[in-house]
Each structure stands twice: as structure tokens, then as C-alpha cells.
Design goal:
9-stranded parallel β-sheet, about 20% strand, binds pyridoxal-5'-phosphate, 9 helices, alpha/beta
Length: about 230
């Protein structure tokens, strides 16, 4: 069942790559496994997926303990500063950095743990009040400040687009972030490496791929609906 879902998602990504003249290797599929039991992750792992996304620190740590160590864990949810220490040596990439204070905390904990941490700057492209993320026109200033930290390494951008019925409605948002990504890349800022554009979820990942996403975060499309009341 999950295997079939994954196949479907993989097929859609491949089609979107073809439609936009991109190679499939440019796009990493992150299986967003939040709320899902370890058995579900194992099933997808057996199909070859190694990138998993979680949005809660405690859940990520619990799954990290019991699942194979070659999994790349992606922290995709809002991160509280007092919880950075728990994931600092477990995550491959933190997608949700949207303030200097959070980046400072990551730097502090990275020093203590003697590690280097790759992060993305989360941008609230649509300017939705309910969403985290730095405002569009403040992104560059934040990047330049975070770039000063010698253990925090910006790898690109993440955005969570609005919920829409038709994924085409989010194309403009994806294009806007793609453009910022290219602009910042061209500025060659020290300690800023623009190689990841994390955008697109179950409702809109094909449009995101067509607009340049290098990581898509798909939960429901692989694991089915989430039940938060269990
Ligand atoms: C839950 C979540 C996803 C996946 O959402 P689906 O619509 O289930 O694919 C992607 N990104 C973030 C940040 C999330 O919290």
C-alpha cells in the first residue's frame, strides 16, 4: 500500500522533471513521516528512501534511536531554541531557521557538540500571518547575519506555500523563491551555499519541481492522512 503510494509519487516527480527539462537526480524526495509509526517508515526505507522529515523534536529523536543510522533526518517544523540541543547531532538539515536568535542557538550548541550544521532559511513568501518564516524582503539581511556563524552553514531556502486546491495557484510563490535563490547565489556570499530549494508538499510538489525545487516534502501522498487524535 505505502509502496504503491511511493511509486505514484516517484512517477509524478519523474514526469515533472521531464516536463521541465530537469534530471531526476536534481530532486530529493523527503518522506514526511510525522505522526506515523516506525513500521511505516521501515516500509518506505526498504523501498530505498533515506530522507525522512519530522516536525517535532521529541518524535524525531525517538525515531532516530530505533531506525537505521544511514537515514538523513530533516527537521522541517518550527524549532524552539531550548530544543536545539536534542537534535544538533542527529539532523542532516534543519529547514526551518527564520531568526538570528535561532541561528545563534544552533551555533552555540554546535560548538558544544563539536559539529557543523547545515540549515535552510525559511521564507514566508506569501506573507501569511499564520506562518513562520522570515519575510521576503528581510531574507537577504538575515542570510548575511547568519553567514557570520562558523558552524552554521546556509544551504538554501525552504517555504511552506498556502494550502490550495489547485497546485498551479502556488506557482507564483515557487517562482518568486526560485528567483531569490538565484539572486542570492549570484552574490557569492561567504559561507552561503545555494544548492537546496525545499518547496512543494503533497498538494503542490509537481508544480514546485517544475519551478525548480531540489527537495520536495511529501507526507500524505506517501503515508496517507494523518490522525492527530490517536
Ligand atoms: C507536514 C508537512 C509537510 C508534508 O505535508 P503533506 O501535505 O502531508 O505532504 C511538508 N512540509 C512541512 C513543513 C510539514 O510540516
Amino acid at each position: 500500500m505505502l509502496k504503491e503510494n511511493l511509486k505514484q509519487v516517484e512517477g509524478n516527480i519523474l514526469d515533472a522533471c521531464k516536463a521541465s527539462g530537469r534530471s531526476r537526480e536534481e530532486v530529493t524526495l523527503i518522506a514526511v513521516s510525522k505522526t506515523k509509526p516506525v513500521g511505516d517508515l521501515e516500509e518506505i526505507y526498504r523501498e530505498g528512501v533515506r530522507d525522512f522529515g519530522e516536525n517535532k523534536v521529541q518524535e524525531l529523536c525517538q525515531k532516530y534511536e530505533v531506525l537505521p543510522k544511514d537515514i538523513r533526518w530533516h527537521m522541517i517544523g518550527h524549532l524552539q531554541r531550548n530544543k536545539v540541543k536534542y537534535i544538533i547531532d542527529k539532523v542532516a538539515l534543519i529547514h526551518s531557521v527564520d531568526s538570528l536568535r535561532l541561528a545563534q542557538q544552533i551555533q552555540t550548541e554546535a560548538e558544544k557538540a563539536n559539529v557543523h550544521v547545515d540549515i535552510l532559511v525559511e521564507v514566508n513568501v506569501a506573507g501569511e500571518e499564520s506562518k513562520f518564516g522570515v519575510a521576503w524582503d528581510e531574507a537577504e539581511a538575515l542570510i548575511r547575519e547568519i553567514a557570520q556563524f562558523n558552524r552554521v552553514h546556509i544551504q538554501g531556502f525552504m517555504t511552506i506555500a498556502p494550502f490550495v486546491e489547485n497546485s498551479d495557484e502556488n506557482r507564483e510563490i515557487f517562482q518568486k523563491l526560485s528567483q531569490l535563490y538565484i539572486d542570492i547565489k549570484q552574490k557569492n556570499i561567504d559561507n552561503v551555499n545555494m544548492r537546496v530549494l525545499s518547496m512543494g508538499m503533497t498538494g503542490d510538489y509537481t508544480a514546485a519541481v517544475e519551478e525548480g525545487a531540489t527537495m520536495v516534502r511529501v507526507g500524505t501522498g506517501i503515508f496517507g492522512q494523518r490522525n492527530y487524535n490517536r
